[in-house]
Structures are given as structure tokens and as C-alpha cells.
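Record pair follows.
FIRST:
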Amino acid sequence: MSAQLPDRIIFQNREYDIISFSPHKLFDPAPWGLEPSSPHRACLRGTLATFAVKENILHLQDLRYWTHRSPLLGLGAGKMIREEEAGECPGYLYQGINAVIPWSGQLVLGRSFFWPLLLPRGFQPAWKYKEVMQLVFEEGSLRAFGDMSKKIARVRAEVLETVAAAGF
């Protein structure tokens, strides 16, 4: 699998990559009536979502969506804009959806990716980011958050030391 483009989230007026989520993904296109198709190897799921935490509530802000089917004209309060085709798959951008997502679980977010550490496979792990945050949601409400950047920096140092010692 090629490196995958991450979904994003705006938290405290800063944009982060969503590195991981537990117990399940934030956005499932099926309940929205969407049938995504992969536009290229860097987005096998056929969607790229931008979420936002507004007044401690999780929202789906914008959605890029690729499909071979007829697109929906609107998504929530969002307006559809047709984008250029990626290969043979038409793409659409829904801006301003602003739908509350009643999701429960934990998110790990990353900002300031260390590009020399990129491996072109799957999603990138937390230790490859300078800033790392953890957020906990219950039914879409932010219950707790914390900065994990210092802890992750120690992990990164250990990984790089091991890689150097092994000669990779």
C-alpha cells in the first residue's frame, strides 16, 4: 500500500493530521448515502475529511469525495463543488457541511511532520510528528485532551537510535 493521505482536524485553531483513532473511524460514508471510489493509490478509501472541534463539539467540516456514481447535490449544510478528475474518477468537494459527529473514542493528532522520515507505506505513525495531541470524545463532546509531544519525542529518539545502531 502506498502512503495514505490522512484526514485532518482543526483543534484550537490549528490544523492537524489524524494519525490514529480508536475504536473505529470517525467518518463512515455509507450512512450518508455515499459510495466512494479510490481516485489514486494515495487515497484508497475515496474520501478525505476535515473535522473541526468547535465549542468542544466534533463537527464534519468539509469532505473531498471521489465516486463513479452520481454525486449528492449537498451534504448537510455543505455546498458541492466539482473538482478536477483524478485519473478516471470524478472528485467533489463539499464545503461547510458543519455536521455534528456523535463519535466516541480517542484520537491521536499530529502536526509538523518530519519529511525525511517518510516511508511510502500506509499511514504514518505518531513518532514522525513534532507535535502530537490526544483527544477523547464521548458522543461528539470533547471530554479530555493532552499534549503528548515530549513523550513522543523520546520515542522518536529511541527509534532513530535503534535504526542508526542497526545500520538502516
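SECOND:
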Amino acid sequence: MKRPLTTLLAAALGLAACATTSSQPVEGSQFDLSSRGGSMSASCSGASCTGPQISVRAEGNQVRGLLGNQAVNVTTSDKEVKGSVGSEPVQLQVRPQVDGLSINGTFAGQLGSLQVADQYIQGRVGRCSYDLKAEGPNRYRGNRSCGGLPQPTFVTLPSNLAEKPQGQRAALLAMLLSG
């Protein structure tokens, strides 16, 4: 059976498009957290972070989507993040540090204070606390506790988070690390 040239051309173009489309994350966009207490991964490229436990998108000063099965709706500025995760409040104060951010306040109804810097991640956000030291650019190793005993943990932060406005960066870090 002969196929028209346009059908063959369309099929060839479709195959070429599939061959050039990669399912691999953009370099510098991957978040990974691995611990005996659980793991999480997400690709944060452009205005969104997506993975099995997170699907959020930033538009202007709004970040909306899902974190686990909870709706996220926050407004960001360079000094604060306000809104909600599910029915729980988010009220975070954001301050720059020499080599990172200090995030303090309430996230999803939980009080916390988190410092994310080039050399460490320390403090509490959501239901998890961290004591991690840098192993390389955007790579950290140490302990995390989410309501139990501290567990050995490895975290890779997306390097492209540094390109985001300070409030968006703080909101995304809180979501990714909150457990």
C-alpha cells in the first residue's frame, strides 16, 4: 500500500521531534533530596518546579500549585512570603545573608528558621530540621530530622534558583525542604 508523501513527511518530522526532545532535566535545574527518612526530586526550570511531590509555578509575585496533596498559594516580595499551603498559613520573613538567605517565620503552620548558604543549610522549615554542610557547589550532606531521629541526608539544590527573585527563591526552598 502506497502512502502519500505528506503522510511520510509528517511521520518523519514527528520522529525527528521526538529524537530532539529530551526528557532529561536542564542542567542546573535538578533538586534531589535523599535520606533514610524519604526522598524527593524535582526539576526547577523556567517558572516552575515539578516532580512527584511538587508542582508549582511562579507568575509575577505569585507562586501557585500543589505540594504533596496540598494547594499552594503564596505571594512573594524581596522581604516576605505570605499565603497558605492547604489551610495552613505561610508568613515568612526573608533576609539576604552574605552567601545565601535567612528564612524565618511560619510555613504550613509550623514555626521555623532556616539558613541556606553556600557552605551550609541549617535550621527548621515545615516539619523538618537540617544540619547540612556543603560538599561542593549546591551539594550538601549531613543530617535531617522530620519528627524522628536525625537521618543521614544528601541534598542537591538547583543552581538556577540563584537567578530567581529573593522571595520566590525563599518560597521554593521552603517548599522543597519542608518534608
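COMMENT: The first strand starts at residue 30 and ends at 35.
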